[in-house]
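Entry 14. Structure prediction run on the chain below.
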Amino acid sequence: MRYTDRERHELPFEWPKTPFEIVLVEPVIPPNTGNIARLCAATATPLHLVEPLGFDLSEKQVRRAGLDYWDAVNLTVHASFDRYLEDTPKAQRHLFTTSAKQDHAQIAYHPGAHLVFGSETHGLSNEILQRFPDQGCNIPIQLGTVRSLNLANAVSIALYTALRNRA
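Output returned:
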């Protein structure tokens, strides 16, 4: 790798004792999931993938985007959203959607909270959003220009906002 001899610095940061958790519901674009896995490795954040996935986890694009960090990812795959809920019954959840009126930056995130994101092509289903009507939050964007943010970018923004806005 280029510039590997350059000195690198890990900044002082108080990482939460109980990490936040990222939940991707039915992701379909392999490089997005790979990039999110790398983010999870870099922040010691567990990653939940809710099936059906639009790819196989062994696909080259997923592995390439996650580089050699997959071994550092605390990964759980759930067969369905209902199964995810059964497996994590006490989790506090924040559902990220452009249909929410709550700004994600105005939330005080509790340790262990789950940050939930939908598919790149259709977001979270109306059924899921209706089940959690008061748990939606939104990242500000100009909707007249774009439909939504790239999933990997949205997850990065949300996770670092949660890390900074801890309750």
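The radius of gyration is 16 Å.
Filed with the rest of this week's runs.
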